[in-house]
């Protein structure tokens, strides 16, 4: 039992190979406790995710073209990044294997975050072109973006602080956790100010709401514990994988843990895309064509990404020209959006022709959006590079 535990722990840290039996038992006890807490936490998240998935199935989300196009757009963007980011010709099967086996964890966060950013940008752009007041357009953006962006903003200083703490740089660690506390203090002050604007009988009189400093400290501690649990779970899963696959002991680097955290956060952003799609037109009186123009631009964005990289990384499928294989799928989706939806909405959509011209030009926004997302992720993972 101890030898098996030692082998499992060695997959996390090779230093356990020379640890005493007492140290192994202690590490097992502490690790088991943390793993149980992390698994319970993940189980709660999985239960909520299952409820969300069940709700989507009960509502037959596949009958909602908007949600399907979110998934299609994500696949097109991920394939464009994965297929045409390497400087080598590959058969289609090999490109798919590379994407699923070697590139998935690095490509998906970039694809999801880029799609999330472009969806919001296109919503604001085409909403204004069709005459919707900017204040109205911001309503669903604030609802959806506040929570997801807050998670990302909280994770950023925590990650920098935790990595600095592991590396022994206490000054940077203090700056990271201090920035996290400052962010939570700002949120706590906003909460207190919002409560003060309410009538006295409707105010929340709980201690945490009336004391912003205490609330900020509580949020900082709770979120730090939450992120640590996610990191522990990633480490545990990685150790189990290396142990049972026989891939040999390997040191779990902070970069690997951060990559796992980024994937988890990216899932939150993907869910927010679904919610944004469902809530935007119910909260705002905007022409339905606004989101269809966004879909058109997203499909053209994937085509642009593929077209820029096909010369350096052609994907081969028999006698099919590589350029057709690259731009064919996204242009087909764009043609379907245009032919099925936008053409019949021409008379009911203000400035339809202008929106159509802008939707083609807006596809090029994928380049700065991808560069920006990549630069943001590179703050935590220096190995992340732009797909093109």
Secondary-structure-derived class: mainly alpha
Radius of gyration: 24 Å
Question: Which outline best applies?
Answer: flat
Give a short account of the largest sheet. Answer: 2 strands, parallel
Mean pLDDT comes to 79
Strand percent estimate: under 5%
Helical fraction equals over 70%
The run of helices and strands is HHHEHHHHHHHEHHH
Q: Work out the number of β strands.
A: 2
| Total helical segments | 13
Q: Write out the strand line-up for the largest beta sheet, numbering strands in chain order.
A: 1-2
| First-last Cα distance | 49 Å
Unreliable segments of 5+ consecutive residues? none
Walkthrough of the structure:
It is a single chain. It contains 13 helices and 2 strands, in the order αααβαααααααβααα. Helix 5 packs antiparallel against helix 6, helix 5 runs antiparallel to helix 9 and helix 6 (170-196) crosses helix 8. With 388 residues, the chain is mainly alpha-helical. The relative contact order is 0.15. The radius of gyration is 24 Å and the shape is flat. A two-stranded parallel sheet has the order 1-2.
